[in-house]
Amino acid sequence: MFSRQLLRASLAPMARKSFAPSFTAGSRFFSFTAENQPRIRIGSVAPNFVAETTQGKIDFHEYIGDNWIVLFSHPADFTPVCTTELGAFAKLEPEFTKRGVKLIGLSTEGVESHNSWIKDIEDVATGGKPFGYPIIADANKEVAFKYDMLTEEDFKNINSGLVATVRSVFIIDPSKKVRLIMTYPASTGRNSAEVLRVIDGLQLSDAKGIATPIDWSVGQDVIIPPSVSDEDAKAKFGEFQTLKSYLRTTKSPL
């Protein structure tokens, strides 16, 4: 598989153990079976967890606080596509911060490995600027399991050494609700600008009660939901254009 070729050479020779139904880490018990895996949908409360990161131990819900957050996973440390992605998000972090959004990455390796990898990211992807957001060390695969960040093959082998998480993206709001889920194969890099665009659309929709059309970007016309009457639409938005009885557009509210 092409995705396997992207992983570090050290992953390739790792022996696969037989699948076991459970995993014990310290005093915590995780049952890595499909029937015990959380069902995450848009609108679900994001599963909480406690984990070590490159910026210390966090309780995920406490870390979110009153912010929005983008949680995104990577197949492994020191992989080429991931290095470009983490660097791109790092460069865009000030734009996310302006919108009250935190960033946090994840890979199923340890903090020491992550910290070494960050040096490479700063060298080749951020122009030497410091890397600002934390990366979760998910060596026991708890978060990968809870957020279903694995391929079918790797889920079957979750108890055997390192496994490669897929490129998952979760946008989570301050109420800890999942607002967007995107999943990419390991071979395909994400579009960081698209994640930022979705944040803009979600926040505007929440604040103004509108919807955004395809390819929408900040400043472009928005859609008035069909549940709003023409009378209420005029009172709320002023002038609007009726393309169909169910499709009305108006200038983007400030």
Which short descriptors sum up this protein?
254 residues; alpha+beta; five-stranded mixed β-sheet; 30% helix; 20% strand; disordered N terminus; AhpC/TSA; redox-active center; antioxidant; Thioredoxin-like_sf
Your description of this structure?
Thiol-specific peroxidase that catalyzes the reduction of hydrogen peroxide and organic hydroperoxides to water and alcohols, respectively. It comes from [Candida] anglica. Residues 40-204 form the Thioredoxin domain. Keywords: Antioxidant, Oxidoreductase, Peroxidase, Redox-active center. Belongs to the peroxiredoxin family. Prx6 subfamily. Belongs to the peroxiredoxin family. AhpC/Prx1 subfamily. The protein has 254 residues and is α+β, with helices and mostly antiparallel strands. The protein has two domains: 2-7 and 20-28 and 40-190, Glutaredoxin, CATH 3.40.30; 209-250, no CATH class. The protein is 30% helix and 20% strand. The protein has eight helices and twelve strands. It has helices at 2-5, 60-64, 80-98, 111-124, 142-146, 152-156, 192-208, 230-237; strands at 23-25, 28-30, 50-51, 58-59, 68-73, 101-107, 135-137, 167-172, 178-184, 222-224, 241-244, 247-250. A five-stranded mixed sheet has the order 7-6-5-8-9, covered by helices on one side. It has a three-stranded antiparallel sheet with strand order 10-12-11, with no helix packed on it. The protein has a two-stranded antiparallel sheet with strand order 1-2. The longest helix is centred in the middle third of the chain and has 19 residues, at 80-98. The termini are far apart. Mean pLDDT is 86; it is low at 1-29.
